[in-house]
Amino acid sequence: QEPLTISLLVSASPHEQKQMLGVRLFPLVQIIDKKLAEKITGILLEFDTSEIIYMLESPELLRTMANKAVTLLQGHQV
Amino acid sequence: GSSINWPPEFHPGVPWKGLQNI
Q1: Is A14 in the B-facing interface, judged by CB distances under 8 Å?
Q2: SS3 state at B22
Q3: What's residue B4's pLDDT?
Q4: At residue A20, what are phi and psi to the nearest 5 degrees?
Q5: Given CB atoms, is A55 within the 8 Å cutoff of chain B?
Q6: DSSP character at residue A14
Q7: pLDDT digit string (tens) for B10-22?
Q8: d(C-alpha A77, C-alpha A58), whole Å
Q9: Touching check for B21 and chain A: CB below 8 Å?
Q10: Which residue, among A43, A2, A4, A1, has the nearest Cα to A21 in the 3D structure?
Q11: Across the interface, do A26 and B8 touch by the CB < 8 Å criterion?
Q12: What does the buried/exposed string (b/e) look like for B6-17 if buried means 16 or more CB atoms within 10 Å of the residue's CB?
């Protein structure tokens, strides 16, 4: 998988940016929560592109945000 | 109650639709 660079991102439309980020986020999210990975990734993609890049670079931050997403999901399903 | 379609699910290989207002 080719590395995700800023120049690659800025050359893409906002929509394409999210797609690129999602493809990279998804396998990482799957490690954290395989069952909810599709939904968690969907929630994380609602954040700004710059924030998603931070998540991709920091496993700790990604885990924190994924856990928050799970909490949101659980609240939503009540 | 009112069930809005949230969250959007991301599936690898499927073009991301996301929220309408992105």
Answers
A1: yes
A2: coil
A3: 66
A4: -60, -45
A5: no
A6: H
A7: 998 888 887 654 4
A8: 28
A9: no
A10: A4
A11: no
A12: ebbbbebeeebe
Spatial neighbors of A12 by CB under 8 A, at least 6 apart, are A20
Answer whether the bond into residue B7 is a cis peptide, omega within 30°.
yes
Could you tell me the two tokens for A30?
Answer: 């799957």
Q: How is A17-62 classified by DSSP, letter by letter? A: HHHHHHHHHHHHHHHH-TTTHHHHHHHHTTS-HHHHHHHHH-HHHH
Which of left, alpha, beta for B13 (phi over 0: left; psi -120 to 50: alpha)? left
Per-residue confidence (pLDDT) for residue B22, from 0 to 100: 44
- The pLDDT, as a whole number, for residue B9 is 93
* Tens place of pLDDT per residue across chain A (78 aa): 667 888 888 899 888 899 999 999 999 999 999 999 999 999 999 999 999 999 999 999 999 999 999 999 999 876
pLDDT at A55: 97
